Amino acid sequence: MRYFMRLAYRGAEFHGWQSQPNDISVQETIEKAMTMVLRQPIKITGAGRTDAGVNAATMIAHFDAEPIADAA
To answer: What residues are labeled active site?
Structure first.
């Protein structure tokens, strides 16, 4: 199933949106957290990118995952 999300973040601690081999990125940080919470490998695709240290008021991204059960 495909899920969409709307994000906002402060980029001061990151080297941009996109995953990089030697620097921490927003994408990598979110993927690691979501993989842990959802207990399945998560790869996200952002609708854009930001440079190092740049904040985002709105970033749209999506990911594919097994259906997430309703918490209710």
So the answer is: 51
